[in-house]
Specification:
The protein is α+β, with helices and mostly antiparallel strands and about 325 residues long. It contains six helices and 15 strands. The protein has helices spanning about 1-20, 25-35, 35-45, 165-170, 190-195, 250-260, and strands at about 60-65, 75-80, 90, 100-105, 110-115, 125-130, 135-150, 175, 200-205, 215-225, 230-240, 275-280, 285-290, 295-300, 305-320. Strands 3, 4, 5, 6, 7, 8, 12, 13, 14 and 15 form a ten-stranded mixed beta sheet that branches. The protein starts with a helix and ends in a 6-residue tail after the last strand. The relative contact order is 0.14.
Length: about 325
Amino acid sequence: MKFILILFLIFASSNSFAEIYPSADTVQHICGMLADEQTRTVITSNKVGIEDFNNDGINETSEICWGGTANPPCIRYKNMDGEEINIRTIGFEWKDYWTYGLDVFFYQGRTYRLNSYDDLGTEPAYLSYIDKMNNEYILCDFENASIEKIIEVNGNEPSTNHICFFVNTKKNTEFTYFTPIDKPIISHEDLKNSGRFETSAIRQGWLDYDNDGTNNLVVELEYASGRGRGCDYNYFDELTTGGSNFVDSENRNLLLKLQEVSLDPRYPSCGGMNNSLFEIRGKVYYEHRAGNEHYISYIYKGEIIPVCKFKTTKFTKVKKIKNLPNE
């Protein structure tokens, strides 16, 4: 009789765990579906039932909160008495994953949280689950990768003799990036007077960036700000012959437009922007990289001429399935 009672208690205990946490098969299934962009969109769009964020069968209230200057995802939960609920992360800390996107969704009777490295949820970081004791566990984390496909302006793929093919493979001896070596003359005070308070001059050199047959004095600049999530990027600008002021001309304005740089004191874009100028076959081209944007263009006769763009395709795979307390 005692033996039967022990078996009953073990069985009851295992059943209670099964009710608290999703099964290993469920975790593997849902993580696999979240790794696929199409099924991810379908799953995370289901918001019916997410009022019960900690899966205890009782609805809570939630409110969006301010996550500091970096604006990471932040949601506060309160019980029916209006008391804030403290969520304890088990086996990980927030700093283990620098995430900026959060999707809370309902799937097969349970509430889950998908955290992403980006704001839009295109780069999943991890899937977590909060139990009725307000403990948050990671169910699985993800690995993201991407490949680029070159598309010419005419819509064709480039040949092995095309400029964009050289950019992508770096397999041409005629290909030279512009790397100025001279110390810039323009001072930090001059930069501040021009409204660029968080900008430094790196190097300067001569280059016919607008392909009009005359070399121009070009300076490479770096913007660096610690505000918010932080922001830094490089870009090029044209100086007067003396090197202490910026030129005011249409082609110089085109150079800034080409790089998507605004002279507004606030930073324009911080998606890891990286700008380059390079020369091949007697012509200077511009390469722009910022987040998923990657394209080649050049200036000629006062116009910006597009050459090609690089279409980025992202891939996500499940990196690791984590162990829950009932496993």
